[in-house]
What does this fold into?
Amino acid sequence: MKRLVGAAVPVTAALVAFFFGAIMLLAIGASPWEGLKAMVDGAFGGGDNLARTAVRATPLILVGAGITVAFRTSVVNIGGEGQIVAGALLTTVTALALPDLPAAIMLPIVLLAGIVGGAIAGAIPGALKAYASVNEILSTIMLNLVMVQLMNYLLRGPLIDPAEVASGTRNPQTERLPDGASLPILVPGTRLHLGVPIAIVAAIAVYILLWRTPLGFRLRAVGHSPDAARAAGINVKRNVTNALTIAGSLGGLAGAILVLGSEGQRMQTDGSLAGFTGSAGFNGIVAALFGGLHPIWTIPSSFLFGGLLTGATQLQRSLQVPSALAIALNGIVVVFVVSSDRVRSRLDTMMAARAEMNDSGGES
Amino acid sequence: MTADAPSTTSDSMARSDAPPLLEMRGITKRFPGVIANQDVSFDVRAGEVHTLLGENGAGKSTLMKIVFGLYQQDEGDVLLRGQPIDVSSPSEAIAARIGMVHQHFMLVPTLTVAENVALGIRSERGPLTDLDAVSDRIRELSNSHGLSVDPDVEVWRLSVGERQRVEILKALYRDAELLVLDEPTAVLTPQEVDDLFVILRRMTDEGRGLIFISHKLHEVMALSDRITVLRNGRVTGQTVPSETTREQLAEMMVGREVKLVPDKPAVTTGEPRLAVQNLSVQGDRGAIALHDVSLEILAGEILGVAGVSGNGQRELAEAVAGLRKPEPGASISIDGTDVSLLNTKARRDRGLSYVPEERMKDGAIAEFSVSENLLLVNHDGDDFTRSGLFDFGKIKEHCQALVNRYAVKTPSIETPTSSLSGGNIQKVIMARELTSGPAVLVASQPTRGVDIGSAEYIHEQLVAQRSNGTATLLISEDLDEVLGLSDRIAVMFEGRVVRIVDAADATREGIGLLMAGVTDSAPAG
It folds into this structure.
């Protein structure tokens, strides 16, 4: 019964959010039913759309799994965007520096480079929090701003594609990466690439890390009670740093996959963070919260949000509504899901009280 | 509710032929799967202290929550001044002049005493507050009851004892005739307990009736007029202090004979296992809280630390455990190795075990299961992992064995620790800390707030460790515990060890004087 309520609450939250979305559609004179059909069709109708949804979900899964590690250690990570960019940049630099190696050698190296890049971007705010008591919410957000500027500088300057300079268009993008660094397409004719299963495996690995290894045990211990962990001899500062480093490395892997799985086989920017990341660093937080901060549940939850994102494109195309509507819808889901935690705990207490009354009433 | 504080207490109080202030007849209260109270009858007369004695979970709190309107009984009657009443909320209870002093104070620290007292009372000046009148009335009550509380001071400035007097004042201000005191001495120093008892006596002299909830036997014997003992929701005895002993009370509480002081076998002590020299440590506020302490504990010896809480005991324990940095010049050695620069983990690797004072904050993680808490210290040893992953088979075996050996009452080792009783949580911590056979054990308040049965068991375990050659630093505010378990007693006052005496020569009075800082006249024992 309790479990049922636990699952019902986020689902209800999503339904309520869609209800509000329907009102918004009505307000701009579109049919909500057609809108819903367009969205569902755009997200899950046909192999091509499914593949697109899976690709959109991939960075959400990775960032979301990282968020669960951070939150379980009681560390807040708002730096997903910056960590994605850090991973993507290091992946790009590494791939460009290497000769065209076979994919079996190249891919592990460049993916690892992404992980390292993200890990560094996570370790900095982690160490600052642990050893200098710098609030990680502020430092991760600030680091996002630093990373976007670094990306813009590198892609407009040192890393810019010489062809862009020669043609005078100067679009901020890198050279095409070597072919060996391209993520293989799994289903021909779609965009479904190797990054999707990598993300799913990574989320499962995070689950194993958190609940099956001594490191995860220490992270959770620090998350629940730094005092008790410290008294037991667990190094709290090191584990706080570890948590953000792990979260960052997953974001970095997401960044690597974004570059290596891109259609252009290169990193490019429109000057904003979202232009490269698609806001996966923030949407991943939502996906993780919607998945109850559990790495495995983050997978379906990411697919749902991935579907929302691809469905929104379809919605825009078929009903001629602004895509901002989908972003607003996304925001509404977040508000309802996050507040549903409150609702859930209140429901729990209400049900416990009712059970108590029924039981005692029945006996007397 | 317009409790605008009548200036005189009711004149109908304290008439001998009057019906009892409160009478509870055949109260039964059930919760799913548990009978919290079964046919409990209990009464309080005006002018007496009636103690409710029982272990945690015996049903004392449930009974009092019925009186206060937080629960409704399933069967039985509650009579107030001879009239059946049906209290369904705390505000009705307050209107019926029933007061309650909770174990955890219900005060707003940033407000003044007067503001706290006035909270929830309608002002006579309508929407405007009337705090001057409240302050005057508080001063009056404070003087007449010997409370010495300044109404205009913010509560956060007050000591724990003073805060409790504010709680009593709140009840007096609302002119409570019947006052429930839920474990009022749990947070008080011995001196504050004495002061509290004087205040309570003055209140019964005025004809108020008091219900005193406690499990501290010597306090119960000292204060009560009558005693009702509860066990598992039933009344197991009703008596008066002159006709009983602490041992008999303990037996009624637990249901079997209890050893309040453990038997200590003779042990040949060995080499010093813990040596502390010139240890000075800063307290939380930055001032030096521990001054130049030196002590040695031999293998097979328990060194008890007596002292009023806040005289440097916590800092001493944390410095030895590696949780607090000593000032330069100090040395802490375990088995001859200086560990003063090592962290907690390294000290634990060298044979240190530590039972922290605050069980739920430092000792165990509430959200973790019993088995996870049992693993908190040694989770990364080869014993419990196989190629980097936990070997849950071995872990389960280990934890189940510990739960059995240390008699932890829990539905399973996967139960969240927060749902265990205090005594059982403490047993989990003891099991974790003792299983390694420590060289040095630092045990802070090992039985505070723990039921008698568990306390007895924990004492036995400490004595068994002593026989195994562990050097134990036992820090406790319970003087009986220190006197009963220690081989030597170090008395602390204002951050210094004022004297170390042999337990054989020590007396309550002698230690008490040293605890108050009186060293010149006091012969150690």
Remarks:
- Residues 359 and 426 of chain B are 7 Å apart (CA to CA).
